[in-house]
TrEMBL record:
This is DNA 3'-5' helicase. InterPro entries: DEAD/DEAH_box_helicase_dom (IPR011545), DNA/RNA_helicase_DEAH_CS (IPR002464), DNA_helicase_ATP-dep_RecQ (IPR004589), Helicase_ATP-bd (IPR014001), Helicase_C-like (IPR001650), P-loop_NTPase (IPR027417). The keyword ATP-binding applies. The lineage of its organism: Eukaryota, Viridiplantae, Streptophyta, Embryophyta, Tracheophyta. Residues 131-150 have a biased composition (Basic residues). Residues 225-395 form the Helicase ATP-binding domain. GO terms for molecular function: 3'-5' DNA helicase activity; ATP binding; DNA binding; four-way junction helicase activity; hydrolase activity. It is an enzyme of class 5 (isomerase).
Length: 855
């Protein structure tokens, strides 16, 4: 059986429990099946009414687990066969449904059966339409006995809500972890105990050999591991594929408590979970999990059967989640993967990461040790990480961010599709077995992949628009060398367990040097010579640079948005909310930018509000049995709901925050009560309008000053993103136009000069211009003013801001002016080659004239 987390923190206690003659000295197959059965019991994959509730918000509220023991499952041990004089007859093997969960190859152990009336049995047999009992039609068109039975079951035989494709993908990963766990080994426990007592280099290398199979550490790994084991917070910067995961996996075996890993992508978490060593039990909590799966993971945590837990930053920052861990589960280490996302000056910062602060971790979870890991970070980004997590600057471990075994080449391309085909059919790429082609957009990815397949190149596309299982299948085929080329967006390669990728081709210009290094770093992880090529053209640069302006906000829109947040109707200390989609469209601000502003109001110099989990806040109630008034007489919550509801076609529509404030309870408690009534058959409900929820802690003294400061801050973040793109363009332009072919550069191969400029970039302070910096953007245009005037006159029905006009001229979609509506306009994207601020100023001047004339 797999070694339990409790065993790693108390090996002697485990040794006592598995001593000869104890109850745990059963056969390996019996113990393994019992362990597997416990996992099935804790996950409870059968249909339960509680799992039918699914909140459509991207970061659902977590519910604390009720304090109750799991129900006893009948033993699956086969009873001894009765004595017989004749050998038993040969039985035909029973057909097993592809979705069933069983312990292969334990044919002798019969799976425990559920009672006939349990709806879980029905749903499990009928998932995806397989194994369905035949439905016999009645000539009188009356329901048959089977139909009547099905109709009586809660849920009417429908699949459980929340059993979506991503949830199944996570469940499969958890089952795979259980099945692949190795048998316990006293030798491992002894090595762990020795390393715990004395974490010297010799003892840590002994643990490395015993568990991970490596003879020695790579550069930076040993120092990081020793820091973490000693309880010292550390920032670790290692190149892609240099073994960052080992730096928390090995300490997790030594440290007594839980290791919590905050990771940005579900697919990345699943990959990391699957790659944990067999002696290190792990689990994950994702928003796509059902309530049963979530509580099952919590049960395993409380039982000490999980040592490493992967969570998303959104889930990690949930109040209920923090309370559960702060009260019951000791955490020895918090690992923040892709830590560059913490900094707004990084190439890929996220609002949820922005909220990760040392003060929150220490206050809520009593965390004393933090390990922040990234593959690429500039000097300013590293300083932001150190400040946010309060890590001593002396505990920064950084190695070279580029690998010496990569040959880097860049060529100017007027026809990228044709040149890509030429590359793949010419040396050195023609002889490579594994190549990644990186594109920018999903449609472009599919188009390039189709073109390659039409030309007899074995290729598959990979992007976030594909189903999770299909993405997993593509990655599996690529790792097993059954696909030669994967055409992918930036998400592909994070956590990719394939060391023999021989080539990386960039079909489009990366958005930053950090992105370029990360993606090229997926080649040559085995230390062999690998090749990376960039197809460079200025048209791509124009498009990507235009998109860099999509997150900006005018001060006028910011002021209106802040007025809505702090409106007089929003009382301090009460739950407030606003729907994401309609608010985004109203102010022409992207949803993620709205969240960024809210986050800044929470973590800025002054804390104006406290962010709550996202909910769908508009609820429609349908009563089925008892009169609503009779139910309200017995239930004070229903009484409040009826008082604050609006009648529509016999249903009751209300805002959940209003009811929660009226009752002085949380929104989770409102949903819990509605769930109980739903299970009793009294009512059903629907949720809509996903919203950002918050509580006002303090009102700003000067709303205009706050608006100006936030607008300026967002403008600086936007400019930082643009400078990163310009630096990438400057490097590529220098390689194809300015390189003097010295220091080993020849033809399109520019490894020496590219490496030198990358080193200079990461050592510079943010905002320092390049000496030979240049972009092809124009600072003026002869017909810009007149075209804007014609555009305003022909679209006088719309209300434009200068930024909205500039976005249309640059071909940038926005919530209020989406590409689906405006891309057919004659002026869409016409002035992409003119610098965006120049277009804004021209639009501002024309709008003043237009409004002054009263047009």
């Amino acid at each position: 059986p797999p070694i339990r987390a409790a065993a790693l923190s108390d090996p002697h206690g485990l040794a006592a429990r598995i001593a000869p003659g104890s109850a745990l000295t059963a056969s390996a197959s019996t113990v393994s099946f019992s362990s597997f059965r416990r996992l099935v019991q804790s996950r409870n994959l059968s249909f339960e009414p509680a799992a039918a509730f699914s909140n459509p918000g991207p970061a659902p509220e977590l519910e604390p687990e009720p304090e109750s023991e799991p129900a006893e499952i009948p033993s699956a041990e086969p009873s001894p066969p009765p004595a017989a004089t004749h050998p038993p007859p040969q039985l035909r093997p029973k057909r097993v449904h592809p979705n069933s969960v069983s312990e292969a190859p334990a044919a002798a152990a019969e799976q425990p059966k559920r009672p006939r009336g349990d709806p879980g049995n029905f749903v499990r047999l009928n998932i995806n339409g397989y194994g369905r009992k035949k439905s016999f039609k009645s000539q009188a068109r009356r329901p048959t006995k089977y139909r009547s039975w099905k109709r009586q079951q809660p849920g009417g035989g429908k699949p459980r809500a929340g059993a979506d494709e991503e949830g199944d993908f996570v469940a499969e990963a958890l089952l795979e972890r259980e099945k692949n766990s190795a048998a316990g080994d006293d030798g491992v426990l002894k090595v762990v105990e020795v390393a715990r007592e004395d974490p010297s280099e010799q003892n840590l290398e002994g643990l490395l050999r015993k568990v991970f199979g490596y003879d020695s550490f790579r550069e930076g790994q040993l120092e990081a591991i020793q820091n973490v084991v000693a309880g010292e917070s550390t920032v670790l910067v290692l190149p892609t594929g240099a073994g960052k995961s080992l730096c928390y996996q090995l300490p997790a075996m030594i440290l007594p408590g839980l290791t919590l890993v905050v990771s940005p992508l579900l697919s990345l978490m699943v990959d990391q979970l699957r790659k944990l060593p067999a002696f290190l039990p792990g689990g994950l909590l994702a928003s796509s999990q059902t309530s049963d799966e979530f509580h099952g993971t919590l049960r395993l945590l409380r039982a000490g059967e999980i040592k490493v837990l992967f969570v998303s930053p959104e889930r990690f920052l949930n109040e209920e989640f923090l309370q559960i861990f702060g009260d019951t589960l000791p955490i020895s280490l918090v690992v923040i993967d892709e830590a560059h996302c913490i900094s707004e000056w990084s190439h890929n910062f996220r609002p949820s990461y922005l909220r990760l602060r040392a003060s929150l971790l220490r206050r809520k979870l009593n965390i004393q040790c933090i390990l922040a890991m990234t593959a690429t970070a500039t000097t300013q980004t590293l300083q932001e990480i150190v400040n946010a997590l309060e890590i001593p600057s002396g505990n920064l471990i950084q190695t070279s961010q580029i690998r010496e075994n990569l040959k880097l080449s860049i060529s100017m391309s007027d026809n990228r599709l044709k040149d890509l085909m030429l590359l793949l059919k010419s040396p050195p790429f023609v002889n490579m077995r594994s190549i990644i082609v990186y594109c920018k957009f999903q449609t472009e990815t599919d188009y390039v992949c189709k073109h390659l397949c039409d030309n007899n190149i074995n290729a598959k596309s990979y992007h976030s628009g594909l189903l999770m299982k299909k993405r997993s299948r593509v990655q599996e085929l690529f790792c097993s060398n059954k696909i030669r080329v994967v055409v992918a967006t930036v998400a592909f390669g994070m956590g990719l367990d394939k060391s023999d990728v021989e080539g990386v081709i960039h079909y489009r210009l990366p958005e930053s040097l950090e992105e370029y290094i990360q993606e090229t770093g997926r080649a040559g992880r085995d230390g062999r010579l690998s090749h990376c090529h960039l197809l460079f053209d200025s048209t791509t640069f124009y498009k990507i640079r235009s998109l860099s302006h999509s997150d900006g906000i005018d001060e006028y829109a910011m002021s209106k948005f802040l007025n809505q947040i702090f409106s007089s109707g929003n009382t301090m200390g009460c739950i407030c909310s606003f729907p994401k989609e309609s608010t985004s469209r109203k102010f022409d601000i992207k949803e993620e930018v709205l969240l960024t502003v809210l986050t800044q109001l929470e973590i800025g110099e002054e804390q104006y509000l406290h962010l709550l989990p996202q909910f769908s806040v508009t609820c429609t109630l349908y009563f089925h049995k008892t009169s609503p008034q009779l139910l309200a007489d017995k239930d004070i919550l229903l009484r409040s709901i009826l008082n604050k509801s609006e009648m529509k076609d016999g249903s009751y529509v209300f805002e959940v925050p209003r009811v929660a404030n009226d009752m002085r309870i949380t929104m989770n408690e409102v949903f819990d009560r509605l769930q109980k009534l739903k299970f009793s058959g009294e009512l059903s409900y629907e949720l809509k309008d996903p919203a950002y929820c918050y509580m006002i802690l303090k009102r700003p003294d000067d709303l205009n000053a706050l608006s100006a400061n936030l607008t300026k801050w967002l403008s600086e973040v936007e400019n930082s993103k643009i400078r990163k793109l310009d630096a990438m363009f400057a490097l590529a332009y220098y390689a194809v136009k300015g390189c003097k072919k010295t220091d080993g550069c020849s033809g399109s191969e520019h490894t020496p000069c590219i490496q030198k400029r990358i080193i200079d970039y990461f050592s510079k302070k943010e905002g320092t211009p390049d000496d030979d910096y240049c972009t092809p953007l124009r600072k003026s245009s002869t017909f810009l003013q007149s075209d804007i005037k014609v555009f305003l006159q022909s679209n006088s029905f719309a209300k434009f801001t200068p930024r909205a006009v500039a976005r249309i001229m640059h071909g940038i979609s926005s919530p209020a002016f989406p590409a689906a509506t405006w891309a057919k306009n004659h002026f869409w994207g016409r002035y992409m080659e003119v610098d965006f601020p120049v277009v804004i100023e021209a639009a501002k001047a024309e709008l003043v004239k237009f409004v002054g004339k009263g047009e």
